[in-house]
TrEMBL record, chain B:
Transmembrane parts of this sequence: none
Keywords tagged on the record: ATP-binding, Nucleotide-binding, Transport
Name of the protein: Spermidine/putrescine ABC transporter ATP-binding protein
Any one GO MF annotation of this record: ATP hydrolysis activity
UniProt KW Ribonucleoprotein keyword: no
InterPro entries in the cross-refs: AAA+_ATPase, ABC_transporter-like_ATP-bd, ABC_transporter-like_CS, ABC_transporter_ATP-bind, P-loop_NTPase
Domain ABC transporter: 4-235
PROSITE patterns in the record: ABC_TRANSPORTER_1, ABC_TRANSPORTER_2
Keyword hit for Transport: yes
Amino acid sequence: MSPQENVKFLHQKYIQSLNREKKWVRFYQAVIFIVFFSGWELASQKQWIDPLIFSSPSKVWGLFLIKIQDGTLMVDLGYTLSETVFGFILGTFLGTLLAAILWWSPMLSKIADPYLVVLNSMPKVALGPILIVALGPSFTSIVAMGAIISIIITTIVVYTSFKEVDPNYIKVLQTFGANRFQIFREAILPASFPTIISTLKVNVGLSWVGVIVGEFLVSSKGLGYMIIYGFQVFNFTLVMLSLLVIAVFATVMYQLVELLERKLIKNGS
Amino acid sequence: MNFLKVDAVHHTYFTKTSAVTALSDISLEVEEGEFVSFLGPSGCGKTTLLSIIAGLFEPTEGTVTLEGKRVETAENEIGYMLQQDYLFPWKTIEENILLGLKIGNSLTPDKKAYALQLLKEMGLKGVESQFPKQLSGGMRQRVALVRTLATEPKLLMLDEPFSALDYQTKLKLEDLVSNTLKSFGKTAILVTHDIGEAISMSDRVFLFSARPGQLHKTFVIPKELRDETPFNARNHEAYPAIFQTIWKELESLEPAGER
């Protein structure tokens, strides 16, 4: 065998071993999935766990089919999903905007510093009742919950990353006579994209928290309402269905953010 | 009238606990088309002086004028090349070299073609759509030079531009930069702590002493060395003598036992 063929052979073997590893990972992931749901079903049917409280996959699936057919699930899902997406986008956008304003004016950022700390340490869901009174028990107040929960932490994280941009990039732009806006557009903002994306990932989760809590408090629609209603009438199949739907769609949103990450961050890697 | 005139520049940095004088009474002149070096131990305020000449900030006292105009008002007339390339990693090479033109709102097709032509002359053909990460250190520093030259600055400032490179790349780049600048007739100031680099590249060497930064002495490089490329100058018979002179002068600046 010539050395070249040998390298080719070894490379193929390496790729094979990678594929084999991937297959095993997928296999165990599937095993966990199957064991969890079949274990749940079995435990529920054998009365090891209280089927009234923990329901069972078959019951949840049955309810799922019913609610798909009568269309109510889609209505609730659409409602909650649009609240979450709006809240998430609003929270991230306003947080980044605030960070930009703080970067623009160092004086303002010094003044705002203690207030940011206070606002950040405050549990935002505690503002829920006030929001509902102020904005009315409606779509708006729930979107506001989804946004407010992520806005301050976004501001703090993004502002920190704005400040940490290597000053030499700014120096390069200054030697070209760049003004502050150009410096922001050409260096500060693009250099902070990785940080902004990672706050997006955190904010996906936070916005779901805000929206679900908001729906607990006021709503007559949505997945959060499904949970609280199921709890009140002791229909835990409904609660479980809602939880599973939330899990699926929160994951989908997270994946979309990762897709965005790959689109936005291009530096030849 | 002098091309560049630094007149009685004095600069002090203030912090809460101290006031450090970085530059004290610096006056010097540079003629058009001349290549000069600022040489000195660390802490002699070379980079501060460069920033002041670039108009990045104003000195505490004194003035700097380029063709009779104060540098703070000059726009895009001074190019500044930093120690590392500082290419923007999220921009392609083409976007990087056109950055100065874009900032100055002067991105015309002519100037774009000029910048791309420069890139070709630097031996960097076909990298336009690549990202800085895909290039080697020497290539990136050449791209940085193209970025600086693309705006056609009247005065070019090089702040230890070769110090982060390996020796072989550094020697090659010295030749390339020197030839390029000579062929364009550009005026340039090189900051370095490498005596050999200062001698082989420049027409005059300004030697600075530290704490506070002061202009200690000026050396005029002999004509036979000036006419050579930096690489050949290092091997010229007149080179060791001037190297020794500057070396001794530098030694005398440092208090005994500091090194």
